[in-house]
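Intended use. Records like the one below are meant for learning the mapping from a protein sequence to its folded structure. Do not use them to infer anything beyond what is encoded.
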Amino acid sequence: MRIVINDWLIEDALGNNGEHRQGRSLLVFEKLTLREDVLVVLENSSWTRKAYLMWTKKDLGARRVSKMFMGSVWEDSSNCQRIPKLESFELPESLLHVDEDDHYLIEAYLNGNADLLVTTDDQLIEFCKQSKDPIVVAIHRDDFLRSWNIAP
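Structure written out for the chain above:
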């Protein structure tokens, strides 16, 4: 499965949401390497900018997660597909109401031929449920984590 995950994963990895969630982000990256799923990310997006920030952090927790992510996910094309950001990307009509901050997620989803968008944004999930052409499948982070047997 090709998966787009919004910023919560990087925020957790950075330690911005506590040690528990930082450890949970490490589990997500570890499981990603063991599954046949692929993380789809959009280059030059807020997601990748935060990922680069993670690599510069000095605290031990962030460095541990960063090392796992960089070595086993980011640099392995079987675990991560990086999609070039288009100079001009227009949302499909059925998704025009999506918040501008989330456009990069839709761009990654559509241009990366993703199967699933994982987010904490309930409004984005609702907009995706209403999308008809193209169809964007979105679920909440907690449901995703449970599906991977990781406690939310």
